[in-house]
Amino acid sequence: xxxxxxxxxxxxxxxxxIGGRSVAGESGRxxxxxxxxxxxxSAEVDFATVAEVDRAVQAAKAAAASWRETxxxxxxxxxxxxxxxxxxxxxxxxxxxxxxxxxxxxxxIGEVTRGLEVIExxxxxxxxxxxxxxEQASGGIDVYSIRQPLGVVAGITPFNFxxxxxxxxxAPAIACGNAFVLKPSEKDPSASxxxxxxxxxxxxxxxxxxxxxxxxxxxxxxLEHPDIAAVSFVGSTPIARYVYEKATSAGKRCQALGxxxxxxxxxxxxxxxxxxxxxxxxxxxxxxxxxxxxxxVVAVGGAAGPLIAAIEERIPKVKVGxxxxxxxxxxxxxxxxxxxxxxxxxEGAPGEGATVLVDGRxxxxxxxxxxxxxxxxxxTPGMKAYEDEIFGPVLGVMRVDTYDEAVRLxxxxxxxxxxxxxxxxxxxxxxxxxxxxxxxxxxxxxxxxPVAYYSFGGxxxxxxxxxxxxxxxxxxxxxxxxxxxxxxxxxxxSKVDLGFPQTR
Length: 504
Ligand code: NAD
Fold this sequence. Notes:
Layout: E1 12-14, E2 16-18, E3 21-23, E4 30-35, E5 40-46, H1 50-69, H2 72-88, H3 90-101, H4 105-123, H5 125-128, E6 133-138, E7 141-149, E8 152-156, H6 164-175, E9 179-183, H7 190-201, E10 209-211, H8 216-224, E11 228-234, H9 237-249, E12 253-257, E13 262-266, H10 272-284, E14 294-300, H11 304-314, H12 336-352, E15 355-358, E16 374-377, H13 384-387, E17 394-400, H14 403-412, E18 415-416, E19 418-422, H15 426-435, E20 440-443, E21 459-460, E22 463-464, H16 471-477, E23 479-487
Helix pairs in contact: 2-4, 3-4, 4-6, 6-16, 10-11
The structure holds nicotinamide-adenine-dinucleotide.
Nicotinamide-adenine-dinucleotide binds next to helix 8.
């Protein structure tokens, strides 16, 4: 009998995007891209050299000059077109996200929709870039401020939101008149190329948006490039710190958003069913691979028993599977190595004194990089499961006696991204918003990602830099201010005066 051996399907090649066209990488170095639901490699992505990053920067630099001169009206018109195209095609890009990241399709559509809100905000760029004018600041003297683009700016993004997080950066950067170089995550890079093609179709001039793929070589080339004025970074804390230090020491403006460990405090007066729904949704949505995921529930006083029972009741009902299956609610993790690392916290928890109430290694789908929702109890500070950002579907429960103890836990955490409180007591909730050291606070809201007309960012080791991302602070980050003092005097009144200018 003749055996037929199936030839392996050709791997999709993912190339750079420089100066308005796809450019094959020349380094010979490539990275694998997987479908995490099957565990099979689906593509390979080029890794850029220093010279290729430079080519992208030069393309951006050439485009930046005329883009800056493009009228606000024309820029806004292009943004409206971008908005329409992303809206029409959000399911196309969502399918790419599911295929490379693993998140379920409905969640991927949600990601694109939240990113779209930032694009919509940027459609108002003529208003956003309006400045101030003071007539008669002194006799015959008017003073006004203007905001100007920085030139070429760059974004370096993580794997967990391959469409939305780049939108947080390129949309305000380009709206403000800059040209942009994106270094997306090498783990799920297709959305960035999809974006590049869409922006071109919407009428964005070539070179205003560029993509270079790669690893540390490409990142370092961005951080060291003298023609890049500012860098936005989103990713893990150690790399955020590295990027911030390197970029700022090279004289660049930098905002570097890092990792998180988000606590959800549940007070005894909370609606326990509502809190359990919120905890399960926020801990296991996107397999816990969200920087705003709830990773710790802090149960105060008598809340612990009923809350844990309600969470345990919900966990077996979470449908885990391929994100393209409409019945799936939670997909796989990004890579096999990451899944194994997340699972190692379940292995290690009992030795540290925590209790594994639900072990997601049991009954996880065999193919792909799956782990089911997992629940730990009796988690305390000092345990690895508490100190590390696990970034997977492992929810820890901590038991404390008082509100003060709960807030102390949050405030002593090195991270300060998001946090939430569940209570029916408005006074306590208000006190919490006053006391808590975190950049984004939810009151009966477990994932308080700000709407696009506010800005997103954490405190402490969750953000290096002084500007949050998107919203008004995003516009601020991608522009620099200039103040003009102007007078049109009668030359006949001109005389030498060595005194310091007075206004009264
Ligand atoms: P990561 O830090 O590993 O990678 C982020 C980017 O940095 C990628 O583009 C990657 O190629 C690059 N990079 C990785 N290692 C590098 C190195 N040694 N030198 C230079 N560049 C390097 O993060 P990730 O695993 O892709 O994403 C998950 C992390 O991102 C989590 O920690 C999560 O909390 C965080 N995150 C934070 C936010 C936020 O808003 N604060 C949002 C999303 C994700």
